[in-house]
Design goal:
462 residues, alpha/beta, Rossmann fold, six-stranded parallel sheet, four-stranded mixed sheet, 24 helices, 10 strands, globular
Length: 462
């Protein structure tokens, strides 16, 4: 067993036994569920919208190179520059060079999971460049020295009281500060940072191939200010973010908003097609898009799992997943948690160390049911499990236990061997120890189905 696996098991045990943690997450996801239910009412046929979105994303993934080149050509026609990065190291090198060339000692950064993926904040800190998170949730977890808890809601695991305590310890604010007071404080604190920033960094919700545009969706306006004020705008985007046409946004933007936060449409939606042009006063003078692979080609190479690259990062599968709601986002030990993270992380970061995530699922299918682009997530988890066995990532005990179970289940005599008390002893002391002490195991009855059936057939039982 790897150190990563052991940490996952330990963290999962702690979080699943933490009643307060589960109460907070249950409450916050409950509010999300109510909002999403109302948001979906805007659709006369939401299933048709999901089918269309899935078709478009799968079309792109099926011919990804073509659409990426189309985006590159059109974006550079607009005056921007595309930089291809094979891995995190290459992306970090390119970003750092751009920032140092500008002479900036800090950057303003909007919420973007892909910069968490490559460890941008930590890397810039080592190079004496301050990276300032401008999304309120991201700013909170940055102050707390934590990673985002959720793809959409980084600070979902914190109560307003805990956030107030954090701001008291960091800035001396009153311990009973309200969310409105904290928001106003952060807004004032960041205003000068935006105004004087030389470099702004964002992610991309979508990359539009036919216009060479970057699309950003947000509710606070911080991404728009990270783009408008600085002289240089750096976009970091995964190669899977591309969509064919700007005309497709009427499908993707509402689906993302509804499934992400329950809104009909996100508050701020921006289409940025390059740096400012002559006679334009707002916007950056230079704009770079870093197209990052970082293991995505490995996902793309899988016959079935490549469908996971159609994900639009709405977070719906996390909110529906009973495992996520029990162990929380941090226990996964990865940037992308929940069902979607459990599918892609083993291929992006190594099947040998992260295969256990594919087994951290009840396979209930809730994730598949809520996905706005119809990814069969629970099926992809099964393919991951199968591939991990095919590639030899299992222990001697795994092999022996499955061989023994198969032998027993295919042999009636072995199934009938021993009395109920003996079988219950084995269940409790062997299966129970392996499967987890917190689970309530079933008890074997005195008579099995075969015995009851024979008695009934012989007329001994009515």
């Amino acid at each position: 067993m790897t150190e990563i696996y052991n940490k996952f098991i330990q963290d999962s045990k702690i979080k699943s036994a933490d009643g307060n943690h589960r109460k907070i997450i249950g409450y916050n996801i409950g509010k999300y569920d109510s909002a999403v239910k109302l948001g979906k009412l805007q659709y006369s046929d939401i299933e048709l919208a999901k089918i269309n979105a899935a078709y478009l994303k799968n079309k792109v993934i099926g011919d990804l190179e073509k659409f990426l080149i189309e985006f590159e050509v059109n974006f550079e026609k607009n005056g921007g520059k595309v930089i291809w990065a094979e891995d995190a190291e290459e992306a970090l090198k390119q970003i750092t060079e751009i920032i140092k060339r500008s002479g900036a000692d800090y950057v303003v950064k909007s919420k973007t999971m892909i910069t968490e993926e490559i460890g941008l904040n930590e890397h810039l800190g080592k190079n004496e460049i301050e990276s300032i998170e401008t999304d309120l949730g991201e700013y909170i977890v940055q102050l707390a020295g934590e990673q985002p808890y959720h793809i959409v809601t980084p600070a979902m695991h914190k109560t307003k009281e805990e956030v107030a305590e954090l701001f008291q310890s960091k800035f001396g604010m009153p311990a009973n500060s309200t969310p409105e007071q904290i928001t106003a404080f952060v807004r004032n604190k960041l205003r000068d940072k935006f105004y004087n920033a030389k470099v702004g960094i964002t992610g991309a919700n979508f990359l539009v191939a036919d216009t060479g545009s970057v699309c950003l969706s947000e509710n606070e306006g911080n991404a728009l200010m990270s783009v408008s004020f600085p002289e240089i705008h750096i976009v970091v985007a995964g190669i899977e973010k591309v969509i064919p046409s700007v005309d497709n946004l009427d499908i993707f933007w509402p689906l993302l908003a509804t499934h992400g936060t329950g809104q009909k449409i996100t508050a701020y939606n921006s289409i940025i097609s390059g740096p400012k042009r002559e006679n334009e006063y707002d916007g950056p003078s230079e704009m770079f898009v870093i197209l990052l692979d970082n293991g995505r080609s490995e996902v793309l190479s899988r016959k079935h799992q490549r469908a996971a690259l159609t994900c639009i990062r709405c977070g719906a599968c996390l909110n529906a997943c009973p495992v996520y709601k029990t162990i929380g986002g941090h226990a996964y030990g990865t940037t992308y948690s929940g069902p979607i993270g459990s599918v892609i992380t083993p291929w992006m970061k190594g099947l040998d160390e992260y295969k256990h995530l594919s087994f951290a699922s009840s396979l209930c299918g809730s994730c598949t049911e809520v996905c706005p682009v119809k990814i069969n997530l629970h099926e992809l988890l099964l393919y991951n499990r199968n591939d991990s066995v095919k590639e030899g990532y299992y222990t001697v005990f795994d092999n022996l236990s499955m061989w023994s179970w198969k032998k027993m289940m295919l042999n009636r005599k072995w199934m009938d061997f021993g009395k109920a008390g003996f079988k219950n002893f084995l269940l409790k002391n062997i299966v129970g120890n392996i499967w987890g002490s917190k689970r309530q195991l079933p008890e074997v009855t005195e008579k099995n189905f075969k015995q009851l059936w024979e008695e009934r057939r012989e007329g001994k039982v009515k």
